[in-house]
Amino acid sequence: MRTIAIMNRVLKELFRDKRTLALMFVAPILVMLLMSVIFNTNSTTDVNVGTVAVTRKVNQEMGDIKHVDVKTYDTKADAKQALQDEKIDAIIKKTGNNYDLTYANTDSSKTAAVKMAFKNAVTATSIDQLKSALKKSTTGMAKLQAQLMVMQKQQAASTTATTGNAAAAKQAAATKAKSTTTATKSTSQKTPKITNHYVYGDKNTGYFAKMLPILMGFFVFFFVFLISGMALLKERTTGTLDRLLATPIKRSSIVFGYMLSYGILAVLQTVLIVLITVWLLGMEVVGNMASVVVINLILALVALAFGILLSTFANSEFQMMQFIPLVVIPQIFFSGIIPLDSMADWVKGISYIIPLKYSGDAVSDIIMRGTSIFDEGGNILVLLVFLVVLTFLNIIGLKRYRKV
Fold this sequence. Notes:
The protein is α/β, with parallel strands linked by helices. The chain is about 70% helix and about 5% strand. The protein has a five-stranded mixed sheet with strand order 2-1-3-4-5, with helices on both faces. The relative contact order is 0.10. Mean pLDDT is about 80; it is low at about 160-165.
């Protein structure tokens, strides 16, 4: 009976907490719908290929392949500039009978798609050339056979010219053998040599290399968000925050004080996560390591302000944990771990309100392309806007707890 009484008491408390019930039943449905939209909208990979001195036939064969766009360039320098500007994903240059392929390799799935498209195009072109050569050979053989039949008829009709006809027949047979040899040589073309070059990584670089810069930012965001939110919630539930608000101290001073204190811990945590990710996991960093740390520190401050803001709407640690499906999980889906370039515009539009997208883009550019931090001013500016807006909302949010 005591067990039943305890069960009834807990159930009554749960049913009184409408927010908890909503998050328990609504949040999983929203997350599943979000996953369905992302994974079912479009699962294809679009690639752009730049070609230099490649035959028209190969370009046409690659262009006919679905989700492959071919752009021709006059010089390899122009193609390299386009590759650096992220306008194309690979360069194909033909020198003699050989091919040089250069891949950006920032996305292994696009690298694999380019390799497959090029292989199919070269194979289709070779088959067409063999068909053409065989057709010419067959036509030549038919003409020779017709000539031999005419000469055999003439030999049967005239006995006096037997010796001359035999010589002519012998010469025709030699011509036939020579023609057959020529046709065989034309059909057995030399296999082109293909050389692969990679701007980032090598042939063994997998998709995890693209995910790693974004995952690094995600773990920074997640743990700073969780720790800051929980810590401020504890300050409020134990009455410490109420006592601070009862003093003449400004709300802005309280917010900045909490952000600075938790910010120091966030800096240490961010530096540790970045160093472990780079050195322990062996991630290749083309750009400046300090730039990677700086951008992740800005993201950590955004997560700190976000966590403090949401803690003002939670009455317990349990409710704070329930914000994770609604706040943290969308960061994964719209950060760039799942390619968004081939999805619907409205799906991509959601990613523009996700802080992790901007830090992920900036860190990926620095790590994989060696971009300077000054060239990432747009992404950094958006992160700073997030930080200022969330800090301002934190100051306003403390009004509801100030009683004097």
